[in-house]
């Protein structure tokens, strides 16, 4: 089931909210756990077993590690065991096709190279559960002994499919207090509608444009190539941030405060700042559980360079099992090293608009690597962007999309910056009536988009 499906919006969510608000406090986690299992089984009836296995494994090993820590016994074997299991499951499902193909090529074997169907949300709930185990090991939180409460955390449907990566320590109190009231319900509903509008009214429209350009199957003009890359740059932001908004909104309706996942990343004035603003739950996860344990920046310069490259290679590998993803990760690792050690002072002296332009160009080229598993395709589009191999500077296709997509592009640019939020806070949300009317219009437009264009899966569900 998808958060942007009519089944979820008009059937699943209302029923869950009613049950959640009606039942006594001690039964609320039961409602959350059962509804989350149903939510996951709706789309993954087989892989729900894998999700439950992960929850049971981390629950039991959390208690085991907590017991050993209290007895001053070494919990390292237990921690290593869980990490190995998690890495094996992730590697098996995400990289089987890639690794079996490599083995066949090197050893002449005949393993099937067909990629396995990736369980929805596998990377997200694996990292979420792993953060719990590591925090218990480091004594940052006590092991959860209530199996229902832990299952509610491990399977929480709001952030199951595409994050944000919610840490147990951040919501443990919420699992027991369940502070829900009308103002929080309203705040959650507004956040959900905003995310739905980002997805349906912006990301999905950009997706159709991208598909049409791809289906044309002819050499792109230079302008068409830039429109194509700009559209993807905006699509992935509004698609992913839209999901995060919806997940955070549903969380608020259920009494949870999830970590923010985006903070206007496209206004960043360096790539380093961009990654402080983009997918913040993943960036902070790698910082806290990989980068800092490796020594962070408290090591020699060669050690620091090593740590950066390891983290960003792993970040790329986390996203997928094709060659472009680790390449994408290393691309950012190298840029961050240069920003840290080579042109840091130069960046600080650039005007704000120039620093932002520098950042956006590097980010857009990064998305070019991210979106294409074929390096040949990357080379052809990159050539067209720079004028090499392009059919012309501008053609009828580019003119058509500039004309028909002008308003969409303008709205995307404004929405990707704080200007609309500031306008909304000053003029729209200053009046309760105006707030209700504006969000009702956004909701109806979004539902209309779902009805007439059908809903599209979120991009990050494939990672």
TrEMBL record:
It is found in: Cell membrane. GO terms for cellular component: plasma membrane. It comes from Sellimonas intestinalis. The chain crosses the membrane at residues 7-25, 45-63, 75-96, 108-127, 148-169, 225-243, 308-338, 350-370, 377-394, 400-420, 432-452. This is MBOAT family protein. Pfam families: MBOAT. It is a multi-pass membrane protein. Keywords: Acyltransferase, Cell membrane, Membrane, Transferase, Transmembrane, Transmembrane helix. The lineage of its organism: Bacteria, Bacillati, Bacillota, Clostridia, Lachnospirales. InterPro entries: Ac/AlaTfrase_AlgI/DltB (IPR024194), AlgI (IPR028362), MB_O-acyltransferase (IPR051085), MBOAT_fam (IPR004299). Belongs to the membrane-bound acyltransferase family. One of its GO terms (biological process) is alginic acid biosynthetic process. It comes from the Bacteria. Its main location: membrane. One of its GO terms (molecular function) is acyltransferase activity.
């Amino acid at each position: 089931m998808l958060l942007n499906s009519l089944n979820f919006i008009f059937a699943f969510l209302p029923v869950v909210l009613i049950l959640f608000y009606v039942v006594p406090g001690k039964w609320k986690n039961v409602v959350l756990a059962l509804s989350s299992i149903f939510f996951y089984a709706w789309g993954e009836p087989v892989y729900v077993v894998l999700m439950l296995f992960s929850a049971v494994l981390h629950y039991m090993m959390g208690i085991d590690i907590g017991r050993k820590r209290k007895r001053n016994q070494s919990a390292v074997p237990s921690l290593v065991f869980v990490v190995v299991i998690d890495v094996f499951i992730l590697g098996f499902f995400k990289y089987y096709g890639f690794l079996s193909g490599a083995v066949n090529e090197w050893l002449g074997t005949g393993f099937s190279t067909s990629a396995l169907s990736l369980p929805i949300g596998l990377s997200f709930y694996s990292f979420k559960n792993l953060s719990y185990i590591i925090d218990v090991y480091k004594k940052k939180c006590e092991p959860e002994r209530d199996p229902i409460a832990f299952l509610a955390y491990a399977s929480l449907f709001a952030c199951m499919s595409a994050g944000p990566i919610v840490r147990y320590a951040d919501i443990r109190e919420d699992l027991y207090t369940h502070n829900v009231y009308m103002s929080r319900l309203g705040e959650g509903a507004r956040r959900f509608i905003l995310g739905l509008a980002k997805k349906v009214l912006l990301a999905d429209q950009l997706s159709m444009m991208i598909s049409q350009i791809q289906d044309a199957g002819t050499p792109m003009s230079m302008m068409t190539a830039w429109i194509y890359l700009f559209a993807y740059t905006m699509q992935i932001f509004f698609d992913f941030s839209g999901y995060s908004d919806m997940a955070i909104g549903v969380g608020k309706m259920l009494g949870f405060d999830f970590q923010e996942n985006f903070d206007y990343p496209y206004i960043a004035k360096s790539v380093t700042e961009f990654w402080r603003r983009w997918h913040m739950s993943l960036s902070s996860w790698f910082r806290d559980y990989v980068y800092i344990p490796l020594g962070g920046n408290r090591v020699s310069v060669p050690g620091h360079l090593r740590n950066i490259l390891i983290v960003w290679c792993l970040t790329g590998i986390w996203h997928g099992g094709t060659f472009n993803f680790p390449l994408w990760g290393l691309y950012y690792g190298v840029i961050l090293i240069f920003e840290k050690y080579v042109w840091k002072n130069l960046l600080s002296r650039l005007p704000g608009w120039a620093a932002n332009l520098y950042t956006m160009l590097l980010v857009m080229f990064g998305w070019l690597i991210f979106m294409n598993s074929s390096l040949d395709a990357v080379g052809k589009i990159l050539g067209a962007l720079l004028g090499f191999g392009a059919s012309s500077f501008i053609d009828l296709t580019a003119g058509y999309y500039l004309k028909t997509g002008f308003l969409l592009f303008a709205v995307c640019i404004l929405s990707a910056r704080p200007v609309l939020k500031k306008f909304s806070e000053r003029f729209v949300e200053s009046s309760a009536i105006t707030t209700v009317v504006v969000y009702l219009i956004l909701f109806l437009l979004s539902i209309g988009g779902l009805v007439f264009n059908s809903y599209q899966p979120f991009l990050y569900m494939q990672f």
